[in-house]
Amino acid sequence: MKRFTKSENSWMFYDWANSAYSIIITTAVFPLFFKASATNAGISGPNSTAYLGYTISIFTFILAMLGPILGTIADYKGLKKKFFTFFFFLGVSATALLAFIPSDQWLLLLVCYTFAALGSTGANIFYDAFIVDVTTEKRMNRISARGYGLGYIGSTIPFIISIAIIVLSQNELLPISTTIASKIAFLITALWWGIFAIPMFRNVHQIHYIERESQPIIKSFKRLGKTIKEIRKYRALFLFLLAYFFYIDGVGTIISMSTSYGSDLGIGATDLLIVLFFTQVVAAPFAVLYGRLAEKFTGKKMLYVGIIIYIIVCIYAYFLETTLDFWILAMLVATSQGGIQALSRSYFAKLVPKKNANEFFGFYNIFGKFASITGPLLVGVTAQLTGSSSMGVFSLVILFIIGIIILYFVPEPKEVSVPEITSRVL
């Protein structure tokens, strides 16, 4: 395989930038910070886990509604980067703002977290769609997987710095409280994300697009309606999205609520942060490995492998009792979380018409985000009804099983001919 181009490297490097948000805000420091804030306010562990799950459901619902609409408009020449830029700055600004909200204001923390998540996931809609502009179909599996690999490697640096500051403050080796240390981690995340996104802005440009025309918003809605009406032309694509809806639901829920789940099991904050650090380290080479194996065995077969491992994770989580069990669980997740996400992105990109990539990645987003509503909601409701977070995680098994069954009926991308949508809609 020839060397990566400047645009490919710059696109992949955004994963390096944005993944700091994923590990520090979505997975590690913020959930623990929020749990501590809620506990101090007299809220029980299962209830605070439920509130976090409900919050994730709310902001994902908002993006699920906006995704296809914004994506369809962004297919016009020059608009993809503008939409990406708006959500990028929203996410970075809200992440930095988390550092200035009083720690006893748990509800305000969730509101700010919602805007940060809207920015991060919103920018990712257009970032993912840029893959059709930076590389070829033949290189997509490896480019997508290497992007996730870079993300895991890059995120460990600000994560290590954040963990060090928090642990040193806990042991009174730094003259600051753990609360202040966590807030510093939020600022580090915003700075890391902002600085290392610069290559994306400089070197990645929209190559495939629809020419501008009068009344772009109205015609974007008409084009979106036409796509929905002619959905039979995209059977393979939407069948894949249906499978994706179910299995990515479980993946996203486990990622976003893992620390909250571990905390409910009585695992200390420091232990959780260390486990998550090693999860990132292990996940990086496995994400790259998935990309290479996909070139040999096909992306679909490697998606099967990832889903089966996640089924094992959910079953094992039900019997979780010790910190060692949590370590084993985390390492299992690490072997597949990057690979399953990377190959889903590249598999879908091979199915979409290039000029309408934003519109279809908007659907990719809506299926993924609606899935992210049901997963945390399922965990939250189950945790409250049973009083057990383990039962909530175990309930995710059914989602993976449904996902792998539907995926079986999705043809390989090379077997699919996808028509372009006409740029003019009368």
From TrEMBL:
Q: Which PROSITE patterns match?
A: MFS
Which controlled-vocabulary keywords does the entry list? Membrane, Transmembrane, Transmembrane helix, Transport
Membrane topology qualifier? Multi-pass membrane protein
Where is this chain's protein located in or outside the cell? Cell membrane
Q: Does the keyword Magnesium apply?
A: no
Q: Does Transport show up as a keyword for this record?
A: yes
The identity of this protein, by name, is MFS transporter
PANTHER family under this entry? AUTOPHAGY-RELATED PROTEIN 22 (PTHR23519:SF1)
